[in-house]
Amino acid sequence: MTQFDHVLFRSCIDAKGFGRAAQRLHRSAATISSHIARLEAETDVVLFLRDTRNIVLTCEGERLEAYACRILRLHGEAAESFSQA
User: Fold this and answer.
1) Most CB atoms closer than 10 Å: which of 8, 23, 60, 81?
2) Which residues on neighbouring strands pair with residue 57, listed in sequence order?
3) How far is 10 from 57, CA to CA, in rounded Å?
């Protein structure tokens, strides 16, 4: 997974929908949906339960969310550390 994948995943969670995440990330909803489908194929799990308006994390999605938060936090710490040097 790339940093963008983590950002995209978190945006979907925060926005509670692919369409709203797409607006925030200035992408199309189809692009967001295809990225999530690729993540689900990579991990071989369903990350979100979907209906026509909302998404909800599955148990596996919650596990990935914890990793995504840690990875993004560590990336921010590393970037800050090097920008201060």
Assistant:
1) 8
2) 48
3) 11
Checking 4-11 for CB contacts under 8 A at 24+ apart, the result is: 5/35, 5/39, 6/68, 6/71, 6/72, 7/72, 8/32, 8/35, 8/36, 9/36, 9/39, 9/47, 9/64, 9/65, 9/68, 10/65, 10/68, 10/69, 10/72
pLDDT the model gives residue 85: 62
Q: Which domains does the chain have, with CATH numbers?
A: 3-84 (1.10.10.10)
The pLDDT, as a whole number, for residue 7 is: 87
pTM of the model: 0.81
Residue with tokens 């692009």: 31
